[in-house]
From TrEMBL:
Biological source species: Nitratireductor indicus C115
Gene Ontology cellular-component annotations: membrane
Entry protein name: Peptidase M48, Ste24p
Signal peptide interval: 1-20
Cofactor: Zn(2+)
Annotated Peptidase M48 domain residues: 36-234
TPR repeats: 315-348
Keywords recorded for this protein, A-Z: Hydrolase, Metal-binding, Metalloprotease, Protease, Signal, TPR repeat, Zinc
SUPFAM superfamilies in UniProt: TPR-like (SSF48452)
GO molecular function: metal ion binding; metalloendopeptidase activity
CDD domains reported for this sequence: M48C_Oma1-like
Biological process, per Gene Ontology: proteolysis involved in protein catabolic process
Gene3D superfamilies from the UniProt entry: Metalloproteases ('zincins'), catalytic domain, Tetratricopeptide repeat domain
Length: 454
């Protein structure tokens, strides 16, 4: 993860709809997201068999990483959002897999749509109760009966409370259903539900340490100890209950945790996280990243090279090497490191390709700048929502003399950042330099005519 691309951890935002209760309502929020090739590849690998078991493998489900220290995950539309705090705290892949299975249960069960219906029903109940209470209050005022007027207030308040509690009860029911469905998915994929129980035990322990005393009828989720009691028997019946994650997957998981800790918690977080194994590869990986982030690239390069000698086929160590070399102003060497990362990485890693293009651009050599534009464009065609990458693409086009394409790339960057007014300005500027009806002109026209959904 390059320093510029990890800046997206704090800068890149997506608009999502979150259902909040009580009373339940849809609230638009800005959620800071993380883009990282290594973490995304690992979490996608966790999700793939679960989504297949849930019948969702062809449903375009995306997993989005949220920059938040709390232990949480949620669903919005066709996306599963997982907090970075969850990734860092979960000590095994199985814990994250259990969380994904639970969220997949919500999507496969159509819980969001039914929740919308329940929200509408609860709102209707509250409105009817308020109108009935208002009628009684008006009647009391007309008859000069204070008791009748007070009764009207009570009817309105009581009706709203009944609607609220009904909605919370419905949500708790859906959560319990998603828990049971998650265990079915884990069984279908030959995986243990022990990670789910560990998650609930952690949450229960956190509530106990905080001295939290919760009314079980006033929350939207079953209490952790209640969930453990409901699921433990079913989980232990599985023939896969004692199955452990493969050692190589556990290593990748711990390296991911080290990366998240180094970037989000500071230099001291990694030794705290791996105090039982301070000389293991995950701890060394986190230390190399921390050294790079704290401005000591020469030492970071030595540490990265030592790790590569231990794991020569790990693409993300080559990515780290490229990041460090960029900071050392050794752009061509950085580009070579990124090229190796792309060759070693599974699939078509668009984010790594953007990093490769960024390194080529940093060389300043005209032939490599042209290649940078091609690599950046290809990477962004695979990761079109990665707004930060368009800035480098615009620079590459600008240095190559293609000002129209540079304006369009700038428009794309603003568009994917949600800055629609600026996007339209640059799109119109690009159109003035483009042939009417050409692919670039048409894309610019799409941006100009875009209307933000309500």
């Amino acid at each position: 993860m390059s320093s510029s691309r990890f800046a997206a951890l704090f800068l890149a935002c997506a608009h999502v709809f979150v259902f909040a209760a009580p009373p339940a309502a849809v609230a638009q929020q800005r959620v800071a997201i993380v883009r990282d090739a290594e973490i995304e590849a690992l979490v996608t690998e966790y999700a793939r068999p679960i989504l297949k078991a849930a019948g969702l493998s062809r449903s375009g489900i995306d997993i989005v990483l949220v920059n938040n220290r709390s232990f949480n995950a949620f669903v919005a539309g066709r996306r599963i959002f997982i907090h970075t705090g969850t990734l860092m705290e979960a000590e095994s892949p199985n814990e994250i897999i259990g969380i994904i299975a639970h969220e997949a249960g919500h999507i496969a069960g159509g819980h969001q749509e039914r929740l919308r219906q329940q929200i509408a029903r609860a709102q209707t109940m509250a409105i009817v109760a308020a109108l009935v209470g208002l009628g009684a209050g008006v009647a009391g005022a007309a008859s000069k009966s204070g008791d009748l007027a007070q009764a009207g207030v009570g009817i309105a308040a009581g009706g709203a409370e009944i609607a609220r509690r009904g909605l919370l009860s419905y949500q708790r029911s859906e959560e319990a259903t998603a828990d049971r469905t998650a265990i079915d998915y884990l069984n279908k994929t030959g995986q243990s539900a022990k990670g789910m129980l560990t998650t609930f035990q952690r949450l229960a322990g956190g509530m106990a340490l905080a001295g939290v005393n919760v009314d079980p009828y006033q929350v939207s989720h079953p209490l952790p100890r209640e969930r453990i009691a409901n699921l433990e028997e079913q989980a232990r019946k599985s023939p896969y209950f004692d199955r452990k994650d493969p050692p190589e997957l556990q290593l990748r998981h711990d390296m991911m945790r080290a990366k998240v800790a180094a970037y989000t918690e500071g230099a001291q977080a990694v030794p705290r996280l791996f105090r039982k194994d301070p000389n293991g590869i995950p701890a060394r990986y986190g230390n190399a990243i921390s050294t790079y982030l704290t401005g000591n690239p020469r030492d970071a390069l030595k540490k990265a090279d030592a790790l590569i000698s231990s794991m020569p086929r790990n693409p993300y160590l080559q990515e780290l090497r490229g990041d460090v070399l960029i900071k050392l102003n050794r752009a061509e060497e950085a580009a070579n490191a990124y090229a190796k990362a792309i060759a070693l990485a599974p699939g078509t890693p668009g984010l790594l390709q953007v990093g490769y293009g960024q390194a080529l651009l940093a060389t300043g050599k005209p032939t490599l700048v042209k290649k940078a534009a091609s690599e950046l464009a290809t990477g962004l065609s695979r990761e079109p929502e990665f707004a930060n990458g368009y800035r480098y693409l615009a620079q590459a086009y600008g240095q190559s003399g293609d000002i129209a394409a540079a304006d369009l790339a700038t428009a794309e960057g603003h568009f994917h950042s949600g800055q629609y007014r600026d996007a339209k300005i640059f799109a119109m500027r690009a159109q003035q330099k483009m042939k009417r009806g050409s692919p670039g002109w048409l894309r610019a026209q799409d941006i100009v005519q875009y209307k933000q959904p309500r």
